[in-house]
Amino acid sequence: QVQLVESGGGLVQPGGSLRLSCAASGFTFKSYGMSWHRQSPGKERDLVASISSGGSTYYADSVKGRFTISRDNAKNTVYLQMNSLKPEDTAVYFCKFRRTVDYWGQGTQVTVSS
Prior knowledge:
- This protein is mainly β and 114 residues long.
- 0% of the residues lie in helices and 54% in strands.
- Strands 2, 4, 5, 6, 9, 10 and 11 form a 7-stranded mixed beta sheet that branches. Strands 1-3-8-7 form a 4-stranded antiparallel beta sheet, with no helix packed on it.
- A hairpin with a 5-residue loop joins strand 5 (46-51) and strand 6.
């Protein structure tokens, strides 16, 4: 069955960096686009970044220039490198792929605070 497992979240000071990973299984990873989303308490889940099966990327304006999405098809893993983190980046981060329906991971908490 499809499984997405995020890791790499934690507590970091403003200006710091984190790299999130999402390990995928149960489908042909290299054939699908993947995306990262985030959700803060009381807010909707928003798209942060996406990467197509061919490697094309998209970033939300709020993270452009600070975050980088990448994928390693040999490891069935998608990454989100987050630099210059701000308190407003605090959220639970989820990875997702869509095959008829959306499949989500369980999320990983990122807290940016001094």
